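Dig into what follows:

_____
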Amino acid sequence: MSDVRSPVSASPETSNDQGRRQAALLRLSTNIAAAGTESEICEAVVQGLYDESLGYDFVAVLLVDEATGDRVLTASVGWQEAPPSLRMQPGKGLSELPLLDGELHYTPQVTQASRYLPTRNEGSEVDVPIQINKKLVGVLVVESNRPHAFASDDLEILRAAAIQAGIAIGRVRLLSAERQRADEQEALLATLADLSAQLKLSTLLQAVLERAVALLKVSHGELAIYEPEKQELVVVASQKVGKKDTTGVRMKLGEGAMGQVAQTRKPLLIPNYEEWAGQSPQYTQVEFQAVMVAPLLMGGQLVGAIAVMDKDPNRQFGEDDLRLLNMFAPQAAVAIENARLFTAAQHQRQYFEELVQNSPVAIVTLDVNHDVVSCNPAFQQLYGYSEEEVAGRNLDDLITTEATRMEAVGYTKQALDRDTVKVISQRQRKDGTLVDVEVLGVPVIVDGEELGLMALYHDITELLEARKEAEAANTAKSQFLANMSHELRTPLNAIIGYSEMLYEEVAETDQGELSDDLQKIRGAGQHLLSLINDILDLSKIEAGKMELVTEDFDVRATIDEVTTTVQPLVEKNDNRLDIRCDDHLGTMHSDPTKVRQMLLNLLSNASKFTDGGTITLEAVRRTGANGGADILLFKVSDSGIGMTVEQMKKLFEAFSQAEASTTRKYGGTGLGLAITRHFCRLMGGDVTVESKPGVGSTFTIELPATFEGPGMIETDAEPAPN
């Protein structure tokens, strides 16, 4: 209140004057209640109070601009020269007093007040606060050209008018806010409906930004997507931001407005971007001031960020703008993520479609009823059908014969039972000819539901022909080697025999100078005979005609024989042979010649690749797994040069040694270990190796103590896999 608060005496009024005042106040209340907008309410207030019966010379309503705090002249009467949209800044004028304490202020003589601003009035003035739910939103200003013109009943009238104005303005603002929210909600729902219908990512991203700009009625906008693998934001849509297109700009987390929002996961309001300390170096020249940024989140996961700006220097973003953007952002994030997933699924689908369409393998997909859903060009080429001819037809009716139909139906059922099928069979083309194919059938299961199966057919006609030719060539090679071995052994045995006879005669005649030469001839002949025997054995194995002669024999006695035979080879390189045998090795029912040959091969190799070391032969008899038949383990260990893992991979290949330098230094043909493995597997066992370079090697032969196989073992041309 002003210092002058006491009621002022009024001149006597007649009863007619009192009635006119009451009628004026009634019209005032009626007009305020009938007004539909803020401006209409304010106009009704000033017009109602500017009544001859009330005697006021100037009436005005000033509403507070929340953004600036200015009092804005909304309606007035009594001053024709009043500037339109007059604004009074805080700290100036008598009309600010009610906004400071929420009380009515009466100034009987305005020219004597310190806040007086020279205007039209030099008399008295009443300033009444207008409140909405105790919030000061404006001032009712009433002036009289006469000093001390207002009495106590005038002050009551003006208080009542301000209260009515506050109630009416509050009602209109509430309705306006509800209407605005309803409009925003409707616009938001329409926006989201449009966005949800758009699944093309590039189009959707631009649509999201355009909708946000339109929804918030701003001039600029920008949208960025978060790339978690790089921990960066990349601008994917831009509208009038900067002097050049910002699409493609990358920002680290924490960089600039969007980078900060992405890092904090919280929205950000910037009143003046040019003065903001956190601006990015990439956005130093901009044409906007106020900025509002929000994160795009889905389930707590960062999808991106969206920013809106306005070039109007008077535009400031408030809580209502932020509320609307916060309503829009999560729905936009969902739409973007859905589009990203859809795009990724489309790319994946296109990738697999291209893969199937361009595959040289015939591929056909079936439903659960065995009917064809689709087939690729390779299928059409292989079987001579067009896709239209096979679509919806039962596959087995199309490509099987009477002889293969039951087999094919069984394979189809097997695949539909979620058991992968991989077989070699024959199928029938459209023209009735047969084709050899490798068949692969796999079930198609999505989210646990079986949708059908995919069948792949690889034409192996040429492969089978090549295999037959290779088998025939291999058989011819084996037969040739066997024949040549027999042809070579006869004269070679004669050479060895004659060299032995000559050696004995030379020894009797004391012609020592010839003994060494005869020994060399004999040794070379025996080495060549051993090589021929190995080649003959290998050819028999590859031809599947290796004969096993099984009998009972004493294991320890066989080991002693082998030890005696190999001892000279062991001593040749200054090695020591260590024999470790169980006391209960017992007997063995197998082929003793093959067992002896395998042990000799391993011991010979150990002697050859060990210099001044120890070679150990260990023999153990054990009970088989789960109480099965007895097995015999023979381990040959050495402290020689050892081998790498790569060298061991080709160790048991025929005519192969660890590496070329080994052959040059130590000699050998590389047949011994290949034959050893073949013999082991023919007799129901196997041979394995452990080795370290520079440490040595250990070969282990595992054989059943009793071999019950037939005398002639028919084996595959290729050895069984290790």
Q: What stands out?
A: The chain has a mean pLDDT of 81. Residues 461-508 form the longest helix (48 residues).
